[in-house]
Input
Amino acid sequence: MSTLRTDRRLLSTHLSEDKTQTTTTVGNNNNKKITIRDIRKKCRQRLPISMVTAYDYCSAKQVDRAGIDIVLVGDSLGMVMLGQSGTADVTMDQMVHHCRAVRQGSRRSFIVADMPFGSYEISQSRALANAIRLVKEGGAEAVKLEGVGGHRQLMTIRAIIGAGIPVMGHIGLTPQSSGQFGGFRVQGRLASQALGIVDDALALQEAGCFAVVIEMVPQVVGTEIARLLRIPTIGIGAGNGTDGQVLVYHDMLGMYADFVPKFCRQYARLSSTIHEALVQYRSEVESRQFPVAADHTFAMKDTEEMDKFLTGVAAKCSHHSSDSTGSTCSSSSASVLRVTDDNKSINHAISGTVSDSSNSSVNDTLALVADRTVISSSAMNDNNSCDNSNDRQYLINNVKVGDEQQRRGPKVVVIGGGAMGSLFSAKLAAQGSSDVWMVSSWREHVEAINRDGLKLYNIHDQRETVRSVRATLDGMEVLSDGRQPDVCLVLVKSHSTEKASETASTLVGHNPQAIVVTLQNGVGNREQISATLDKCGYSNRVCQGVTNNGAFMLGPGAVRHTGSGLTYLASSAVAAPGGADDDNNNNELSFGEFASLLTTAGIDSQLSTDEDSLVWSKVVVNAAINPLTALMGVTNGYLLRHDYPRRMMRRLIAEGMHVCRAKGVQLVYGDDLDQAYDYVAQVVERTSGNLSSMLRDVLRGQPTEIQAINGQIVKEGERLDVSVEYNKQVMDMLLTGQFINV
Ligand code: KIV
Output
């Protein structure tokens, strides 16, 4: 070793000259295979060399595609791929197996494979045989050995190189012998130790290594070795002065949330991305939101084949109906409904939906149960089924309408083409007694509806295609048929209320007989719409409601009804035309009649006398569930299974309740915190597998409704001097993107 130290200065002059030589540059963005010559050339031209580990076809393809110069099949695979605590247990067979997969994925990068612990120390001939195996069986283009291990190992390196296999050295921290160093510790902090590492580097160069990895040494040591050596130095935790850098694939991509080595920069946080994706997948499987019939399934050759098949299944079904597999038959008949679009089947599908409303699974909305505030307008509808021909008659007879209107029914304009807007449009249009328009800014959705109809999947995944909804991007087009709208139903997210109010004002502002209903989440939407309409002097025709239906967009032109529950219209708060339940002698639709129209369409609806109670009861529930799911990236059900979200929910509810108490608002679940918490817990339980709308907004990178929900609790709390710290905290966190890692 001492001779090497003496030679150092001499070599240094000679070699650094070599490295500074600049000729033509070597680009890394072409598809040319990288060879050992390219690596040497890059080093000479002082172009940094990139190296990353890969262990299988997929990671190798990614590394290759990114234009990385060297792909290392590292024995770190024992830790990151096989879950071992170190690299010492990795076998030759494992290395060959992984190397072969990497070879399959690499077209361009230069492939180096680690010789695992025990594969090169015993004898030169065994080392040579193993190196040859990595090249012949694994497809490696070079091998890497750790340490210097004295004269014997240097001879082994010479022998491998002599057999035509390039060797990369590895000094500093050598993980295979980390036990000897007392773990994964920085090497060369003391000068004597650092000089030893320099000697190792020079010895490896002398032995013929084409490059050397320097791991976990002080920056100055890495830089000095790089300066001294003629061959490329590749650092990992060795600072920025080496000729190249190497990182472990899993570390740099943040595949493990729990550990990041100090020297590693995480270029992505794939662990949480993967987690979110998997949780969403699981939840969509559990709630049957995936697969989507329109996008991910295969159709029969044509309808003729489908009919033949279904008839055949029906025959089998009746054949087997007396045996114990009878349940199969009911699912077959369900599939008949799913694939048939004729009216008879549609009616069955709808009645199935409605009769299910009693055990509904609502989305992130709450099922308001208190009926003390409710004036039932559906008394006329006591069988709660969908065979509502009498109701329809009632509606048409009682609304004094012109011939045209009598023929087509009231004209309903739904403003908003999201999940709820699409659900209400589809339900109302499918029922057939109203003329439905949808105004939406989602171009693909509007085009799909006008081209192929609006596809509505009910809770049992039965599909019907509703062709009578007319969709438009431009609200003014609604007036093109010469009819004034009778109802504007606003179902946009709360941050789009202002724009929706303007559309509503254009559409109904000059029609003294029209009504406007908002079923949006949060507080303040009705007020905002009223204020806009007020400018035309018609604000008293705006009614706030809440709906306990859940829906989910499957894609343009397709919506799934995920849960049904009651819809309430708080009509008494406003002087509706003709009054809420007046005998109405004009051409006007009252709020009661609109509730009845909705019920007839399969959306059970009632009138309520207490708008504040309706709205705030829902706000307090949503304020407890939505921000936590959005911040933590979890399904609703997660909140009940863990201590922290349970405690947070309770605090959020308590603050909401205090605000309501100060405002004199009666909540439908009463004034007792335990009772309110139980109520929220029931909503969470029922919607356990769902992703809240706020979380979906976050995942889509869209603004959330946090300001209309928690923001309103905060605003009112501050006005009334009630503590709203927790609501404020979750709101601030969401608005500034401080997500909680779970
Ligand atoms: O095995 C491995 O991944 C390595 C790198 C840390 C250089 O040897």
